[in-house]
Amino acid sequence: MENDKLTCKSCGGDSFGEGKLDGYSALQPVDKIFSNGSPIICTVCLNCGEISSIKVTKPHKFK
Ligand SMILES: [Zn+2]
After folding, report:
1. pTM of the model
2. How far is the CA of 51 from the centre of ligand 1 (A)?
3. DSSP for the chain?
4. Domains of the chain: total
5. What angle do CA 55, 60, 63 make, to 5 degrees?
6. Does any domain span residue 42?
7. How far is the CA of 59 from the centre of ligand 1 (A)?
8. pLDDT (tens digit, 0 to 9) for every residue of the chain, 63 residues total?
């Protein structure tokens, strides 16, 4: 099964790429000082640059 069909809410485009924030840009849990957090994956419209989705790759880190 492919990814859910995405449509850009800004321009209506349907071509997307993925970007990753990692290292110092990883999202840290607010109450876990010694955790190293989780990288973030952004899904970006290739037409206008709108970010349609932002996900962390390790959601269990935030429990
Ligand atoms: Zn767009």
Report:
1. 0.76
2. 8
3. -PPPPP--TTT----EEEEEE-GGGSBPPTT-TT---B-EEEEEETTT--EEEEEES-GGGG-
4. 1
5. 110
6. yes
7. 27
8. 455 688 999 999 999 999 999 988 899 898 877 778 899 999 999 999 999 999 999 999 988
